[in-house]
Design brief:
The complex is a heterodimer. By secondary structure, chain A is α/β, with parallel strands linked by helices. In chain A, about 45% of the residues lie in helices and about 15% in strands. Chain A has 2 domains: about 40 residues; about 260 residues, Rossmann fold. An 8-stranded mixed beta sheet of chain A has the order 1-2-4-3-5-6-7-8, with helices on both faces. In chain A, helix 1 crosses helix 7, helix 3 packs across helix 11 and helix 4 crosses helix 5. Chain B is of the alpha/beta class. Chain B folds into 2 domains: about 290 residues, no CATH class; about 120 residues. Chain B is about 40% helix and about 20% strand. Chain B is globular, with a radius of gyration of 21 Å. The chains are: A alpha/beta, B alpha/beta. Chain A: This is BioH.
């Protein structure tokens, strides 16, 4: 009896120590995550390396939004060519567009804004819908004095550009839609997350994930989730027939997020659309294969109109 | 350095050579072909095991590199390209080599300070308890893996290679598939676009060595035998050396019965598949790069030209090199060779034709010191040169000839040489800093002028 009591005391005494260890561990993890999150949020808008390579940054008041943008000035002195505007994907910011901007700058003046709520373009309140993001882009162009441009979107950026081009055709000289979302045959968040994970595996040698972490921290989890919902709600396929600008749909042959069949359908739905497949390409061509991407679309962009 | 992606063998010529060159461009020695400190630490004790146990460990170790036929279907060619491109330092290069694997070329590229992108890789697929001498079974059993690899990527050709003379140990546990790129992977394109200067030159390295093969598909071939100690005729018709070799290993047959060849195709390991040229030239045209193709038949032809090139280059620097460093298969270290101001001379394998190549070279050239690496593949195959004959070749040095990290008693089962060769090379003195890179024009002028006498010709694609 006494022995039994003693054993039960030992057992009872052991429990709190495990709880303490687990509690301390959890607190340490939360503290680490909070510190890391804060560190990511405070990442400077422009790295020294980017500045050294010739990327400049600027804030512009565009209607109600104070918008940040990156600029890679044309090296080739082709001032009369229309500028190229790069539109980023889901939650990520223009930071991951830098490699493409640098690859294009020998021929074009390249701009890459952070849409409101992402990257350095802070926004109070809820997430903007796809048409609202397209409107913000229109405001930013106006504020920067860009009447007409050539546009390149990646992933969710293609949804914003499709909406933009359908409603503001006078602003769009031509469009490059690379890896457009959302494949209408895979319209479920779970499938999209799985595809994104598969794409991450393919791109792990030169992954944009570290930039993604910075931008998720800057945008915040709530905005990220709300924007994902907007992404899933938006039906790009319903807008494509209203795009009048020449449009090049670029698809990586290994892109699991926007597979070749879907990209080909997108190209077919745009009245003046064409498909360009890049052998071996993945979803984030602008970051992983920027030089190959730039070379592949160069001829198309060179057909663009002149600025006034 | 990082490990090769799954499906690519570390003990292969291309994987070894590319790492040796990349190490040099980083200003480092190529000290570990395995890229595994654990494996390297195990090699010396493994070398102490009895002969059969050593062979068994070699086989099992090799098998761990292999993938299954199911995994072969998911082989990531772009991942391989990324791995290769990622090995080199990020900087701007005036030129790049693309194409055939060649050890001598690694020294040329190292001297120029430029990268080389290989066309061919070895993908070993597990096939435990196989009979290395049964060509027909090897042919039949390999078809599933060939099919899987063909489906993995439309941009590769598959050369199923069965060489029971030189790969006996490995073939009892796996099948060898050489993958040849027929178009530039995106990773290569991106690397070239990112790294080459606007007026750069792309050098295609085209070894025209071919071999009788059996076609198994539009992009697939079966090759029985390979460049090495035995002749083509011995592989297909047998002979006294083959009969003695088979008897030595307790094999009942007296010759091999390979499927009838249907054509000659680029040799699986060293030959160049011209299908790749189109995408190289197309890319170069878009970027206004020059393309020069260097054509030669025997891989060791480049060794003569490289030795000559190095001698002339050193002389330009006022150095009369007295030391010869002899490489063997993937055992090489361009970095230390340069620091020693030594003349490199690469040999394909530890077999008689290679020994004969070195003999011919040494008839014309003399050195105070000859330092020799010696690859061990674990088999007393047809045409393997004895250690005494190798020793006799090193003895042609005027002052001293020596092996580098070779355990003469255990050759050709001296597996610890993989970890010893570079240490032995690095101990040699005197060493200097790396010289300034060889001017590209110096290389090109010299090879155009003198290459023909070694069977190397230049072909300009932009002309």
């Amino acid at each position: 009896m006494d022995q039994g009591r003693a054993r039960s005391r030992r057992v009872t005494a052991a429990r709190p120590s495990w709880r303490i260890v687990a509690g301390v561990g959890a607190c340490a993890f939360v503290a680490w995550a909070a510190i890391e999150w804060t560190r990511l949020k405070r990442t400077p808008a422009l790295s020294d390396e980017s500045a050294r390579k010739g990327i400049t940054a600027r804030y512009t008041q565009a209607g109600p939004y104070r918008m940040f943008s990156r600029h890679a000035a044309c090296e080739g002195g082709h001032a009369k060519r229309l500028p190229v505007v790069l539109v980023h994907g889901l939650v990520i910011s223009s930071r991951y567009m830098e490699p493409l901007a640098l690859a294009l700058r020998s021929d074009f003046d390249v701009y890459a804004p952070d849409l409101p709520g992402f990257g350095e373009s802070k926004l109070r309140g809820g997430a903007l819908s796809v048409p609202e993001l397209a409107d913000a882009l229109r405001l930013w162009l106006g504020a920067r004095g860009i009447e007409r441009a050539m546009f390149i979107g990646n992933s969710f950026g293609c949804q914003i550009l499709a909406d933009f081009a359908a409603r503001y055709p006078e602003s769009v000289d031509r469009l490059v839609l690379q890896g457009p979302t959302v494949d209408r045959d895979a319209r479920s968040l779970f499938t999209q997350v799985c595809r994104d994970w598969r794409n991450g595996r393919l791109e792990q040698a030169r992954s944009s994930a570290p930039i993604g972490r910075i931008d998720y921290a800057k945008a915040g989890v709530v905005r990220a989730l709300a924007t994902m919902r907007e992404l899933m709600r938006d039906r790009i396929e319903r807008k494509l027939s209203r795009i009048v600008a020449p449009t090049l749909v670029v698809a990586g042959s290994r892109d699991p997020v926007a597979p070749l069949a879907w990209a080909s359908e997108v190209a077919a739905r745009v009245p003046n659309g064409a498909l360009l497949a890049i052998d071996g390409g993945t979803h984030t061509l602008n970051y992983v294969y920027p030089h190959s991407f730039a070379l592949a679309i160069r001829a198309f962009l060179l057909q663009g109109g002149a600025s006034r | 350095m990082t490990k090769p992606p799954r499906g690519i063998a570390r003990f292969d010529s291309a994987a070894g050579m590319v790492q040796a060159l990349a190490a040099c461009l980083h200003g480092e020695r190529f000290s570990s072909p395995s890229q595994s400190p654990l494996l390297d630490s195990l090699m010396p004790p493994i070398n102490l095991l009895p002969k059969r146990a050593r062979e068994w460990v070699y086989t099992v170790g090799g098998m761990s590199e292999g993938i299954t036929a199911r995994q072969a279907r998911r082989l990531d060619v772009e991942g391989i390209g990324e791995w290769i491109a990622g090995l080199y330092p990020q900087r701007t290069y005036d030129a790049a080599f693309i194409g055939s694997s060649n050890g001598a070329l690694m020294h040329v590229a190292a001297a120029l300070g430029v990268p080389w992108l290989p066309q061919t890789f070895l993908c070993p697929v597990r096939a435990p308890f196989s009979d290395p001498d049964d060509a027909q079974s090897g042919f039949d059993d390999g078809l599933a893996a060939v099919d899987a690899l063909l489906r993995a990527d439309p941009r590769i050709a598959i050369h199923h290679m069965q060489d029971p003379n030189q790969d006996r140990l490995m073939l009892s546990a796996m099948s060898y598939f050489r993958l040849k790129l027929r178009a530039l992977p995106l990773a290569y394109r991106e690397f070239l676009l990112r790294s080459l200067a606007p007026d750069a030159t792309l050098h295609i390295v085209r070894c025209t060595r071919d071999w009788p093969v059996t076609r198994t598909g539009d992009r697939s071939f079966y090759q029985f035998g390979a460049l090495g100690g035995a002749t083509e005729r011995e592989y297909f018709e047998g002979g006294p050396r083959v009969a003695r070799y088979l008897a030595r290993y307790g094999v009942k047959r007296t010759r091999w019965d390979a499927p009838a060849p249907t054509l000659r195709a680029p040799e699986a390991e060293w030959g160049y598949d011209v299908a790749l040229t189109e995408s190289i030239v197309a890319l170069a045209k878009q970027k206004n790069w020059r393309v020069v193709e260097w054509r030669f038949e025997e891989p060791e032809a480049f060794s003569f030209a490289t030795a000559e090139l190095y001698r002339a280059w050193y002389r330009e620097m006022g150095i009369e090199s007295k030391r010869l460093v002899v490489d063997s298969f993937l055992l090489m270290d361009p970095y230390t060779t340069l620091r020693l101001r030594a003349i490199p001379f690469w040999l394909v394998f530890c077999t008689d034709p290679s020994a004969e190549t070195l003999r011919r070279f040494l008839e014309r050239e003399s050195f105070d010191e000859i330092d020799m690496m010696l690859f061990s593949h674990g088999t007393e195959g047809v045409g393997v040169t004895s250690i005494d004959e190798w020793r006799a070749l090193t003895a042609k040095a005027k002052r001293e000839g020596r092996f580098l990290g070779v355990d003469a008693r255990r050759y050709p089962r001296d597996f610890a040489t993989f970890v010893r060769f570079d240490r032995a090379l690095a101990e040699l003195k005197p060493q200097y800093g790396l010289p300034e890179p060889m001017p590209p024009a110096f290389f090109e002028d010299a090879l155009r002028k003198h290459g023909a006498r070694h069977g190397i010709t230049a072909h300009d694609h932009n002309a």
